[in-house]
């Protein structure tokens, strides 16, 4: 298929075969985020509702990037810079698991032979993620503009249409063998590759975690999503409050608690995050409600759900209770919103470890 694989630079000499990643992330198309704090007038100009994520053409993305400089919010230190980094929900979750929790993680996907593609691969590598399952292809890498308002709420406009991505028939059993979890994100444009990955995961005893992506994705493609959930192949599902409400739109009980019940009928673990109100989760007959961390001041909500998933999955692989998984998730989700973008800074990882200690949670056994 004209694809090649990226490997980490190894030391000279004979090396042992590396252990399979405990947790794999499937992000078919590598993605670069351009994150900036902007005033409301720019948000009024772009198509679509505030707060969500809808795809745009490359011309629209380039137009927004050109307009950004005139709308950036000033901070105490002057205008905030535009931060560019590896992005995408799955990449955020996997990077967090690797760099903040020390979990052996890998990424499956494809990136282009351009500057953005190299940046994505390098960023994941530096974060300790196994990139041997990333395919380099001729073409462009996906990009996304993340616009953050003065309240820390983010509006996302990804451009995926022309980007290279991995296809379902390119996946191999070697991609999945020996791993424990596969992390995927719901997407109408990724149904085929997601379904192929789910089939292979089930053949190799790998559990599947699904994030519901955005309320627009749930609204516009609800029927195939419900079919996927009701297949019984999803072991863990994360939804935020808006996605949960959208999932049951039109029914009498279209609220987060009812969505949790619906999800728990088909998934072993179901989690609905509620922003500043914390989260609710269910496993078997157990239901827990965990508050958010009051000390977490939101600079940018980008990645909050993704990093919550990092903490929750860390708890699962460590055998923690449902309540403890939620508490770790609230700590990691709270850490990323303290700065711009979906990548946690070293200072905010230290903040998270302190929060975990305060809550009596054991810290990850990694060098920091």
Q: Could you characterize the architecture of this molecule?
A:
The chain is an alpha/beta fold. Helices cover 37% and strands 22% of the residues. The protein contains 13 helices and 16 strands. The chain has helices at 40-45, 58-71, 89-101, 115-126, 173-176, 191-203, 215-220, 222-230, 241-247, 256-266, 304-317, 322-336, 346-358; strands at 4-5, 23-29, 31-37, 74-75, 78-79, 83-87, 105-112, 134-137, 142-148, 154-159, 181-185, 207-211, 236-240, 269-273, 279-283, 286-290. The chain has a ten-stranded mixed sheet with strand order 1-8-7-2-11-12-13-14-15-16, with helices on both faces. The chain has a four-stranded mixed sheet with strand order 6-3-9-10. Helix 11 (304-317) packs antiparallel against helix 12. It is globular and about 50 Å long. The protein starts with a strand and ends in a 10-residue tail after the last helix. Residues 1-15 have low confidence and may be disordered.
């Amino acid at each position: 298929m004209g694809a090649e694989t990226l490997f980490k630079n190894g030391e000279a000499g004979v090396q042992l075969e590396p252990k399979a990643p405990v947790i794999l992330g499937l992000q078919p198309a590598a993605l670069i985020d351009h994150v900036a704090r902007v005033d409301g007038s720019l948000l009024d100009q772009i198509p679509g509702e505030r707060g969500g994520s809808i795809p745009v053409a490359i011309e629209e993305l380039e137009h927004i990037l050109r307009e950004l400089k005139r709308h950036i919010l000033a901070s105490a230190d002057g205008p905030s810079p535009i931060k560019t980094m590896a992005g995408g929900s799955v990449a955020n979750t996997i990077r967090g698991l690797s760099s903040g929790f020390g979990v052996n993680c890998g990424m499956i996907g494809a990136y282009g032979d351009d500057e953005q593609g190299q940046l994505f691969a390098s960023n994941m590598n530096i974060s300790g993620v196994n990139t041997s399952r990333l395919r380099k292809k001729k073409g462009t890498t996906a990009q996304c503009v993340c616009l953050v308002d003065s309240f820390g709420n983010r509006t996302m406009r990804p451009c995926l249409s022309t980007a290279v991505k991995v296809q379902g028939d390119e996946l191999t059993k070697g991609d999945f063998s020996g791993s424990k979890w596969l992390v995927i994100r719901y997407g109408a444009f990724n149904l085929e590759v997601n379904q192929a990955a789910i089939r292979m995961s089930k053949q190799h005893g790998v559990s599947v975690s699904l994030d519901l992506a955005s309320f627009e994705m749930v609204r516009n493609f609800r029927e195939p999503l419900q079919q996927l959930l009701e297949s019984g192949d999803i072991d863990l599902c994360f939804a935020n409050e808006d996605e949960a409400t959208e999932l049951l739109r039109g029914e009498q009980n279209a609220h987060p608690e009812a969505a949790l019940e619906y999800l728990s009928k088909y998934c072993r673990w179901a989690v609905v995050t509620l922003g500043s109100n914390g989260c609710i989760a269910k496993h078997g007959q157990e239901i827990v409600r965990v508050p958010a961390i009051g000390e977490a001041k939101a600079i940018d909500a980008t990645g909050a759900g993704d990093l919550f998933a990092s903490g929750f999955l860390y708890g699962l692989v460590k055998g923690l209770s449902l309540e403890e998984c939620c508490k770790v998730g609230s700590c990691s989700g709270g850490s990323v919103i303290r700065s711009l973008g979906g990548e946690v800074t070293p200072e905010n990882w230290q903040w998270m470890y302190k929060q975990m200690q305060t809550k009596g949670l054991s810290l990850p056994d990694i060098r920091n």
